[in-house]
């Protein structure tokens, strides 16, 4: 009984002696994303250094838009910027009318590989590849691809599968999912 009263007494005294600033954790900076819009996508393993176009990837026909130039990539500017919570979506062409395009070798990425996104102030965010998956166009998880909340993910996409000359193009999309690599080595 005495020990309970003694513990209670020490808790009360400690409550008066400790100020909120002494017990409150210091805030951790969550501003990982530089100012401005991303300007370049870099994939060292594939020797890709592509300018980023800004487009609305989703049109009314439930299709996805691609960049205007074969060697550029397109970021869905209505979604998160790379490094922000949610999934920043960047798509690029697989090939052109004559030859390979910017994401021709995207299928060669593996879990653990690095993807970088440069911003106007020359700062570069690094992302670690988590997985790759080939989706039929009819099964593409668009709500997930363009998520506005959650992990600080980067989604890369390009055409895959068989090419159909009837105007529908490729029947699959290759999706590469990566997450922001924080300075402490953890994933954002």
Spell out the helices and strands N to C. HHEEEEEEHEE
Overall number of structural domains: 1
Which term fits the overall shape?
globular
Strand content: 35-45%
Category from helices, strands and their pairing: mainly beta
Primary descriptors:
188 residues, mainly beta, Sortase, Chain: A
Q: How does this model look, in words?
A:
- By secondary structure, the chain is mainly beta.
- The protein has a single domain, classed as Beta Barrel (Sortase, Chain: A).
- It is 13% helix and 35% strand.
- It is built from three helices and eight strands, in the order ααββββββαββ.
- An eight-stranded mixed β-barrel has the order 1-2-3-4-7-8-6-5.
- Strand 7 (152-164) and strand 8 form a beta hairpin.
Provide a concise account of the structure shown.
This protein has helices at residues 2-17, 20-23, 142-145, and strands at 40-43, 48-55, 73-76, 86-92, 114-118, 124-136, 152-164, 169-180.
């Amino acid at each position: 009984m005495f020990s309970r009263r003694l513990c209670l007494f020490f808790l009360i005294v400690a409550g008066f002696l400790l100020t909120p600033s002494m017990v409150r954790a210091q805030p951790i900076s969550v501003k990982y994303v530089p100012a401005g819009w991303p300007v370049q996508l870099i994939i060292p393993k594939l020797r890709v250094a592509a300018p980023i176009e800004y487009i609305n990837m989703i049109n009314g026909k439930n299709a996805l838009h691609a960049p205007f130039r074969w060697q550029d990539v397109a970021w869905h500017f209505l979604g998160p910027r790379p490094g922000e919570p949610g999934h920043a979506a960047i798509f690029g062409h697989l090939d052109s009318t004559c030859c390979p395009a910017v994401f021709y070798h995207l299928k060669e990425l593996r879990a653990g590989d690095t993807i970088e996104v440069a911003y106007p102030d020359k700062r570069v965010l690094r992302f670690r590849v988590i997985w790759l998956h080939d989706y039929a166009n009819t099964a593409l998880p668009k709500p997930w691809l363009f998520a506005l909340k959650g992990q600080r993910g980067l989604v890369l996409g390009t055409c895959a599968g068989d090419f159909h000359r009837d105007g529908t193009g490729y029947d699959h999309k290759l999706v590469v999912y990566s997450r922001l690599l924080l300075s402490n080595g953890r994933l954002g």
